[in-house]
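The records we work with from here on pair a chain with its fold. A complete example follows; check for yourself that the lines match position by position.
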Amino acid sequence: MSNDLTEHNGTGIPAHLAQYQKKSKIGNVDSSDMIIPRIKLLQAISPELQTFNNAKAGVFWHTTANEPLGSTLMGIPIVIRKSYILWAPRNDDRMILARAMDGEHWDVPLAEFTVKPKGSANSVTYYTKGSVAESGLAEFGSSVPGDPQSVPAASLTYNMLWYFPEFPELSPAVIINTRSGVKPMQELLTKIQGGKTEHFVQQYNIQVVQMKGAEGPYFSYNYAGAGFADAHTAEITSGLFRRYADAAWVANDEESDSAESSKPKDRRQVNEEMASKF
């Protein structure tokens, strides 16, 4: 048997295993049985910094390979899922109370959750009711009922599945944008929508930017156009889109990447920032 480790046609497969390129399914499973790895933007409080010597704040981290990928990534968007997550306050062991993975319907409708939000003198109750819209939990004033300036109780969350041409062996992977990451993602979606090609052949530089928050500096995202996929990559990304567009998939965790996520901006801060731009 050959021990030749030369790659076969640039596939990353040893030449002696070329005849075994993947063609078969392992069993009666599909993408709904797989957990997609994440690319996290590490913060000063990220647990990876305590676990891995090569982890540091301000870099992208692959959660399955447990490897840093630098502070700039070339990525091609494949599929995005918009959802809402109803979080328990920090130090509440329940963490996620409810999810609306389709952006409309809670996975636990007609439920009640009693919590004590930060800044609230008393406990309050969140009602999921029949849907996100009916519950009002995604609206300002919902985290502390009676305080119209309080932030939404439920966080708008975008899960974007990406292909990374520079790291094909680590693709696809999910980047989660929530709270402070929502605006950069919405700006990216505007760029994608304005493109003249299918989204899965558009390339973007995913960059780390440092921001100032109420509890100190933290890192967030910036997405900048970077041309188009080459012919070979376009075949891969179009295939990934066909595979995942209508399939069930989840990221391997849903915790926020943002260091200031425990204290998101209230309505006053949002209004002040908007006014400062004019």
Q: What stands out?
A: The longest strand covers residues 72-87. Residues 259-278 have pLDDT under 50 and may be disordered.
